[in-house]
Specification:
One of its GO terms (molecular function) is ubiquitin protein ligase activity. By secondary structure, this protein is α+β, with helices and mostly antiparallel strands. Helices cover 19% and strands 9% of the residues. It has three helices and three strands. The longest helix is centred in the middle third of the chain and has 9 residues.
Length: 110
């Protein structure tokens, strides 16, 4: 029988080898994994990361700009669920600069 390729059916021996195809699975891997998050708008490492109530993660500057350019239709850029600046949760962790400082500067009414 012909094989469909290495990614069609990975055996446990192959999936634990740490090859390029296994790099997206963070379960149980502690070495070599960068503990950063990717913004769903700019697709770069999230700066001042926030998470929406629908579970999507963004850079606060990216999400703030998204919301400012769509004042009449504030929806999640990923799933189109309702979203607002007061209903996002800042994420703190290693390398975090603290989104609250950015919130204080960029959310003043006016």
């Amino acid at each position: 029988m012909a094989s469909k390729g290495p990614s069609a059916s990975a055996s446990p021996e192959n999936s634990s080898a740490g090859g390029p195809s296994g790099s997206s699975n963070g379960a149980g891997e502690s070495g070599g994994q960068d503990s950063t998050f990717e913004c769903n708008i700019c697709l770069d490492t999230a700066k001042d990361a926030v998470i929406s109530l629908c579970g999507h993660l963004f850079c606060w500057p990216c999400l703030h700009q998204w919301l400012e350019t769509r004042p009449n239709r504030q929806v999640c850029p990923v799933c189109k669920a309702g979203i607002s600046r007061d209903k996002v949760i800042p994420l703190y962790g290693r390398g975090s600069t603290g989104p609250l400082s950015y919130f204080a500067i960029h959310t003043a009414p006016g």
